[in-house]
Amino acid sequence: MDLRTVNVTRYIMPLREGGSLPALADADDGFKYVLKFRGTGHGTKALVSELLGGVVAHTLGFKVPEYVFINLDEAFGRTEGDEEIQDLLQGSRGLNLGLHFLSGALTFDPVMTKVDSKLASQVVWLDAFLTNVDRTARNTNMLYWNKELWLIDHGASLYFHHSWVNYEKYAVSPFPQIKDHVLLPYASELESVDKEFKAILTDEKIREMTNLLPNDWLNWGGEEESPEEIKNVYYNFLTERIHHSDLFVKAAQDARKALI
């Protein structure tokens, strides 16, 4: 499992969605990317969530945009008129994260578009596993592109790392926030999906994913934790969560019963 690395050649415009101020940019491979910056408020932790969430989703068979590592040269941002964006660009020099831009994609509307119970159950399981709080009716973070459902924006996943204490407790949490998931009412096949996905997400597969994390993104541990030790925490969190998936599956089933 490898990610390509590209370089930004042109900053096109900010995408003012949410608080992270991603941008649309051209890269030297000729493609456009949604650029996620390391210089945002949550720093590289948001990139870690985005990358791990995206590769888990891809491994489980979901449609997700291609992820690339994307270099931002120090020259970018000097001529940007918006001071907030200029500061963001200047603070994001180095390795960032890019998602292939899905030109012409439509935002998923749960009122207009119905999702079958299997797919709904798969998405709910994914987000309960990742502790992703950001797939709600207000902000679905799903797109329709080429008549298929695509998942985007996993930066709100793995929220345990913002406190970075007692991760063992978070790893076995039932994740009650799943009650707000936009697809929960349709997720009637969680038990079968649980068996299917647990067979795919082996410990070895999780290790491959955490090994993708650049050491450059993991320097916030200071002298207490090395990048390798931080990768191990993510590995331990995800594998423990898989081993105790019955807890978050039951929580989702109970929350669904309360809805319907």
Automatic annotation (TrEMBL):
InterPro entries: HipA_2. Keywords: Aminotransferase, Transferase. The keyword Transferase applies. This is Aminotransferase class I and II. Residues 12-231 form the HipA-like kinase domain. It comes from the Bacteria. It comes from Dysgonomonas capnocytophagoides. GO terms for molecular function: transaminase activity.
